[in-house]
Amino acid sequence: MSLLKIATWNVNGIRAREAQVLEWVERERPDVVCLQELKSTVAQVPAALCELQGYRCYWHGARAYSGVGLHIRRDAFAEEPRFFHPSFDFETRVVAAQMDDLVVVSAYVPNGGKDFAAKMQFLRDMENYVDEVHASGARLVFCGDLNIARSERDVHPKERNPAIIGQRPEERELFERILGHGLVDVGRALDPDNENLFTWWAPWRRMRERNIGWRLDYVLATQSLAARASQCLVYREIGTSDHAPVVALFNLDDDTGETVTVELV
User: What are the structural domain ranges in the chain?
Assistant: First the structure.
């Protein structure tokens, strides 16, 4: 495989966005699809989505709350992926898939509005997990709604407030620590000077149309993979969720390193 396309989207309700997800996946045909905030049990996932055509699908959800999906295109990976839940998963917020030495994670970090301490603990556990994967020698792509605007420029000037959850210094410090374990923020690495790069907009006052938003959705990749990223785009015009899809493309043509098979739990 010379190109690897990985997409992530907080759909804010998979049942409400069924037709939009189907149309988007059919048009983009990502090799990996990461979804968040399903707000649906596995049994409630619409029949047309239960087995996306051409994909190995994994759904992990609870009624009307949280939930994540992770779907691997069959033509992109010949082997059967191993789906699993890292130990810091709770409230159906994390699922991972491993294909040889590649691990992809779809995660939905708690907002923190109801329990900020739980959010910080989730992030610390996430840091430990990223460190473990990095130490194992595996390649990691960590995708999802991380519910943190990484820096001031990741929030529109009209929305900046360091006292608000999602912009607090202690959250941003943890984010940087996570990146310090061998990960790269692909979107920002490819578009370092864009002051209008947002993925979430409050659903009022035409905030999305005016692009007054926050960047909360990320594709984070191991440095060796990030060095081969050619694009990481936000599809602001897609869908009626308050989040936009983010799609990253990696060119693996020059990937001549040996494959290392590792086992993660």
Answer: 3-251
In angstroms, the CA 243 to CA 150 distance is 16
CB atoms within 10 A of CB 38: 29
- Contacts of residue 159, defined as CB under 8 A and 6 or more positions apart, other chains included, come to 212, 213, 214
Task: Supply the DSSP symbol for 42.
Answer: G
Per residue of the chain (265 residues), give pLDDT as tens.
589 999 999 999 999 999 999 999 999 999 999 999 999 999 999 999 988 989 999 999 998 889 999 999 999 998 999 999 999 999 999 999 999 999 999 999 999 999 999 999 999 999 999 999 999 999 999 999 999 999 999 999 999 999 999 999 999 999 999 999 999 999 999 999 999 999 999 999 999 999 999 999 999 999 999 999 999 999 999 999 999 999 999 998 755 443 333 334 3
- Residue 237 to residues 187, 199, 232, 248, 265: CA-CA distances in angstroms? 17, 11, 15, 17, 37
Q: Which homologous superfamily does the CATH classification assign to the domain defined by 3-251?
A: Endonuclease/exonuclease/phosphatase (3.60.10.10)
Residues in Cβ contact with 232 at an 8 Å cutoff, skipping those fewer than 6 apart: 186, 187, 189, 190, 191, 219, 246, 247, 248, 249
List, by residue number, the catalytic residues.
108, 145
Q: Distance between CA 71 and CA 58 in Å, rounded?
A: 6
- Region of 118 please: left (phi>0), alpha (psi -120 to 50) or beta: alpha
- Quickly count helices (H) and strands (E) in the chain: 7, 12
**This prediction's pTM:** 0.94
Query: 253 and 237 in contact (C-beta within 8 Å)?
Result: no
CB 215 within 8 A of CB 137: no
